Amino acid sequence: MVIFKTEKEIAKIREASRIVAEVLDDFRRLIEPGVMTIDLDRHAEKKIRSYGAVPTFKGYSLKGSPPYPAATCISINEEVIHGIPSRRKLVEGDIVSIDCGVTYNGYIGDAACTYPVGIIEPEKENLLRTGRECLENAIKKAVAGKRLHDVSFAVQSLAEANGYGVLREYCGHGVGKYLHEDPPIPNTGVPGTGIPLKEGMTLAIEPMITMGDHRVRILSDNWTVVTIDGKPAAHFEHTVAITKNGTEILTKL
Q1: Backbone φ and ψ of 82, nearest 5°
Q2: What residues contact residue 129 under an 8 Å CB cut-off, 6+ apart?
Q3: Is the separation of the CB atoms in 191 and 147 below 8 Å?
C-alpha cells in the first residue's frame, strides 16, 4: 500500500534528505586513490550523527541476510550495490558507488552516486554519464498524472540504447518513515502501465546499470551484489516528492 505524505511529512523527509546530500557531496573531495572505504564510511557516520540523525542502513536487515554492519554501502567496480566498507583501498581508475540513508526525526532520505577515483577510462566515464542521465530522465517522468512504469521505461530505454544492462532483481522504492515502502520502482517496464503517480508520493528512484550482462549474484557476505560477468556497474539515486507544485528532488543540494 502506498503511503501518501502530507506537506509536513514531506518537510521532514526533506530535512533527512538534506543531510544525505551533504554527506554525498563530501565524497567528491574525499574519494582519491589510497583511501580505505572504511574511512569513508566512518566520515559519513560521524557527519550523520553530528546532525542528531541516525545512519538508516546500520543494523538494517533483509530476509536471509545478517544486519548490515555500516553506515553506508560502498561498492567498487563490478560491485553494484550493498558493498560493505572495509580496509580495501581505492585504486586509480576505480569507480565507486556510495549509497547513503539517513533517519532524522523519524523520517528517511536515501540517495546514491557513483564517483570516479582519479582518472578513469572513457568507457567508465560513459557508463557514469549514462547512469546520471537515466536518473534525470526517470525523475522527469515522476510527475502526477504519469504511470509508475513511465519512470521505469525512462531508465531502461536510455540505458539499453547506449548498450548497457539494467538490473531486474533490485529496484527503487517508496520512502518515508520506512526505508522500503510501496511502490517498488523497477528500472524496466512498459510505458503507460503501473499505478498512477499522485501528489503526496515520496519515491527513491535508483537506476542500476551495468557495462555488460545485467545479471548479478550475491557474495558470501550475504550483502554485496556483483555483476555475473565481472564488468563495472553504476548506481545513482535521488529521493523525490510529488507535490502540488511539481516534483522536487529532496536529496539535491
Answers
A1: 65, 20
A2: none
A3: yes
H or E element at residue 114: strand 107-116
Instruction: Give the DSSP per-residue string, 175-232.
Output: -SSSSSEEEEE-S---TT-SSBP-TT-EEEE--EEESS---EEE-TTSS-EEETT---
The span from the CA of 54 to the CA of 60, in Å, is 12
User: For residue 121, what pLDDT is reported?
Assistant: 98
CA separation for the pair 164, 158 (Å, rounded): 9
Give me the residues of the chain with pLDDT under 70, please: none
CATH number of the CATH domain containing 61: 3.90.230.10
Average pLDDT, the chain: 97
H/E element, 104:
strand 95-104
Question: 63 lies in a domain?
Answer: yes
Is 80 inside a domain boundary? yes
Q: Residue 62: its pLDDT value, please?
A: 81
Task: Please tell me the predicted confidence (pLDDT) of residue 65.
Answer: 82
Between CA 34 and CA 63 the distance in angstroms is: 34
Cβ atoms of residues 201 and 141 within 8 Å: no
Quick one: pLDDT at residue 253?
Answer: 86
Q: How open is the CA angle 245-206-213, to the nearest 5 degrees? A: 150
Does 1 map to a domain?
A: no
Q: Number of folded domains in the chain?
A: 1
With 0.90 as the threshold, say if the pTM is over it.
yes
Amino acid type, 9: E
Q: Output the nine-digit C-alpha cell for 58.
A: 546500520
List the domain range (segments joined by +) for residue 82.
7-249
Q: Determine contact, residues 229/213, Cβ cutoff 8 Å.
A: yes
Residue 2 lies in a domain: no
